[in-house]
Amino acid sequence: MKEKSVGTFLKKYTMIIVLVIVALFFTWQTQGRLIYPQNINNLISQNAYVFILATGMLLCILTGGNIDLSVGSVVCFVGAVGATLMVKKGMNMILCIIIMLAVGLAIGIWQGFWIAYRRIPPFIVTLAGMLMFRGLSNIVLQGYTVAPMPQNYLNLFNSYIIDFFHGENFNITSLVVGIVAAVIFVLLQFRQRMQRVKKGYEVGSITNDIIKCALISLVMIVLMWRLGMYKGIPNILLWILVIVIIYGYVTSKTTIGRHFYAVGGNEKAAKLSGINTNRVYFIAYANMGLLAAVAAMVTIARLNSANPTAGDSYEMDAIGSCFIGGASAYGGSGTIPGVIVGATLMGVINLGMSIMGIDANWQKVVKGLVLLGAVIFDVESKKNSR
């Protein structure tokens, strides 16, 4: 029984264990430079778009292993529109943000219509979108880079939360937030466990839950401690947390969230049970367009510009993060926390290899092998379970 419990624990948290091992490996190989406060900050800011896009990509993958190949081009196009309006036209920042979100949502609705209601394969629709919106980006930008972005816009994404405790060489607020977040996480986990016990549901080993809570709480506190040694909590982390919390709740606690899993598990059965499968597909791709717009806002703020090559290969990073994080290649399986783990793993690999000075081409080889390994693991696991 104990062996079974350990096996279940290892299988459930495989990617977290891999993430820890990879992080320790690169920390060793870089003589600790990977976990310098500034590098941890860079890990968050440089991979913010991955966390955002991967969250939306998960919903597409849940519907049956479908993907959206156009998100990188959509990020570039929406960023080009926003930067042109703000920098060249001098338009109000808030109005520009609303227009960017509207453009992203309109693109998602356009692609969602063909996929959901005309049943054109997602691969074809989004491949066409990848070509179209990359071309439109160049038309809007006329082949040039638009820069710099207004300072008040940059402050939304590139600044840091002020230290309410006024620490001299350390951001005390960052550490306090980490401790409070860890306490809240532990309380929520054990509240959820108690509710499951009360309702008579099966629960895992209490030892496993204690270990999980202790490790995750430790990571939270250490992360905030390291950020406090640099400039504190970056604003972009709050944007990521808001998106992750919202979509984590939607996928795990709402009816529409359960519909995504049902459609991916067996679309015909879902349709027979009364689920509007067309609407599920439509929502997945409309939402992907909206989150691509958010990623565009983040990207042009980080680069302080919009250029014709922005968003290149973003779709690959988002798709890879989902599959590495445990999303099934067949659909119907995957979680937001898993996607975050996958995105973090990709970010650690990128940052670690960059610090080590490994050639960018070899970095792509390693990322490709990691992605292939994750999908092979998923496929073989399902074969063994059958």
UniProtKB/TrEMBL annotation:
Q: How does it sit in the membrane?
A: Multi-pass membrane protein
**Where located?**
Cell membrane
Assigned keywords, A-Z = Cell inner membrane, Cell membrane, Membrane, Sugar transport, Transmembrane, Transmembrane helix, Transport
Transmembrane annotation, as ranges: 12-31, 43-62, 69-86, 92-116, 123-144, 170-190, 210-227, 233-250, 280-301, 336-358
InterPro entries with a match to the protein in the record: ABC_transp_permease (IPR001851)
Do the record's keywords include Cell inner membrane?
A: yes
What role does it play?
A: Part of the binding-protein-dependent transport system for D-xylose. Probably responsible for the translocation of the substrate across the membrane.
Protein name in UniProt: Xylose transport system permease protein XylH
